[in-house]
Structures are given as structure tokens and as C-alpha cells.
Amino acid sequence: MKTKSITLLFDPRIDIAWKLCGDSHIYYVLSKFFDFINHPIKWQGEVYEIKLERVHPKPLLCGQPIQETTDFIVDRTSMWNNYYDCFMQSALNSLIGTTNCNYTMRHFNKHHTSDVLARAMHPADHFPITVLLPEFNPLTPEQSNDLLLEVMEKYFNNHYPVLLKRAYESGGGADVYKVNNFEELYAKYTRSGWPVFHIQEFVEDFENHIRCMAIGPQILPMNFRMNVSYLEGYNPELITIDNNNRALYERLGNYVKFINSYHRWTYASFEAFLKKGKIYPIDFANPHCDSRFYTLHVHFPWLICALVRWSTFCAVTNKSMGVDMEQQSIMEVLNNSNRSAIEKYEFCKHRSEAYFEAEKFNEFCAENWSNLDEQMINFYDEHWSKVIDYAIIEMSYFPKQKHEYYTQEYQKLMNHYFRPNAKEYLNYNIY
What is the pTM of this model? Predict the structure, then answer.
């Protein structure tokens, strides 16, 4: 039996300090779950044992290939630590498969992702008008005033409200301002402390705020609310997809897969508003997305199962993560004025499907993970109370005096929504 190693790149010291994205939650549950299922993988006549490890920082000789250390890396830390960032650059140079391309994760920001997706929209949907502003520091007050007046008249017909959003290095709704008039816009633009902004069309009276979690071609859409408690952010009920909205969610799934495949991200989130049958994408530069148990709660077991399928598929099949990226061939189509919007959309759809190798992935899962939901249910029944204790007591923002309360609340939430409908939650996908 051959061994394939899956390595989780995370540092508990960083996760304890930041508690941002649930890296330790993922490692804790993945390691326990892999031990619990103890499942050999079969592929093309070979049998593989899966070994889950964690990267430990150590000296690394420049020019030394590191293929022998791992077969696939789930990168959850390089955004926050310069050593791990450099380690992932060596992994990229060694052609080791990773969930997300380190280069694009570091350097392709909210402006870049917006600029790409705005060129690839289906005509049934609408990309909110988004304008990049020059830095305000070199401008005089009069120049800033004139610039904003020109932008609001030229692109927004002087219609308020609009959003002023940081064009890079932001997340979790930070540095996003709704401005209701010119005076507010001028004040935020000139006094915020951040030099590069987008002005974006404000989507009024939207019906749903959707945040998708994407692991490879597996996509879980969830109803989402900002500025509420951890328990209330993600709606615990699954979204109903039927003949009335199936085409809409198929388009949403295609946008998710395109923006991720274009940037070589296979573990990311994507947000959009839905209104009157249209999709309005709003935030999708998220390759280091929130994956904490106490925010995802009933959806967290789906995330673990999706990671098991995708990481083992990539490690065992030696999936090419396409570090060359092929952006020129894609942009030659998206910038071609002789191609219609629907032709560009279909082109991007087919390119992303080819990148994720959905048929091969489905074949792999059918051979190896046909009973993964049953295994997760058994794991849940035996171990989930310990998962909740770990996430709430050891790795959360909750004050000590609230630990017992939140432990009980999360247990009730899981037992009410997830456990009676576990198979439905675990098998929910729009890919």
C-alpha cells in the first residue's frame, strides 16, 4: 500500500492570536475524522493510505525541491505569516498541489477579481457598476471634490446611496461604507486613511444575501446576514432549489467556479445578492475564507466532507493545479468585442469545468467516498460534543463565563437542524 500525505498549513499560535478563520477547528476535526474512518483509497489499480500532517517551520534550503515532504497542501496560514508565505512559494516552485495558488492569493486583490468577473457575466445577471478611484493623497481638496462629482455624474447619474469599498486587502465587511449623499462620500474618501477605493452601485431591496463555500467543484450556497451574532450569520436552513430558481443557482455556481479556476483557488467563498431573478456579485476575493465551526455550525460537517473528497482526490490523482494559469487565452476571449456576452459566459463555464475535472472527480468519489455521509454521521454521534467543546472553550472569542451557554446553544442548533437531516446537509451541492 502506498502512502499519500495531505498537509495542513496552519500555525495554532496564529489561530489563537487571531481566531479569524477556523484553521485549528479544521485541523482538529479533519485529523479526528481521518483517524475515525481509517479508509484506504483505491485508484487505477493502486491502493493508498492517507496521512494527514501539519507543516512545522524549519530551515529550508533555497533550490531544494520539497515534493518528498507532502503530496497536497491545504493552505490556511500563508496570508498571515511571512515564513509560511515563503514556504508556499517553494511549494509552488516544487509543483506541489495546493488548495489555493499562493501567488494569486497574495497579489490578486478585490479590484482584480471584480475587473475579471465584470467581463464574464451572463446577460441575465448584473455586475454592480464599480469604479476604481485614484489615491486622494496627491489631490487638493478642490481636485478631490471635482473628481467625485465627475464620477458620480458619469457612472451613477448622481444616484445615491452608493458604496465606498476598499479595493484591496479587506474582508468581513470591513472598510465598506454606505454613503447617502455627496458630503458623506467626500468625507469618507478624504478622511478614511485608506488610499484606494471603489465606488460601487448599491443594490437596494435585495431579496437574499448568499455566501457560497466552494471546495473544488463542490459549492454550498447559504443565506447570510452581516453584523449579527455568530449564531445568526448563516441561516441554518438549506436553500430550496427547484425548477423556479435552478437556472439562477446554476449560473451562480458557474461564476464561483470561474473566478476560482481563473485564480487557481479551490477553497474560497463567494458572495452575491439575489433580486428578481438576477445575480449581483459583490465579494469574491476570499481564498482565505471564514471556516470556523461556531460561524458555520450546521454547515461545518459539509465543509469537512468536501475537504476530505477534494484533498484526497488531488493527492491521489496528482491533479495539476495549473500554476501557469492560462490567463492570456481567457482574456483574449473576454476582451474580444466580436464575442457576445453569452458566448463569453459559456466559454468561461467550460474552461472552469475543465480545470476542476468534474467527471474524474465524481468517478473518484463514487469509487472511494460513496458512504462518506454515513461515516460523518457516525463520527458526529460519537465525537461532535468534543468538537463543540474544543471550538467554543479552547478556540473562540466567547468569554469564559459564556462557554457553557454557547456550548449548549450550539449543541441544540446541531441536534435540531443537522442531525435529523444529516444526509440532506452532507449531500447538498450545486455543482
Answer: 0.95
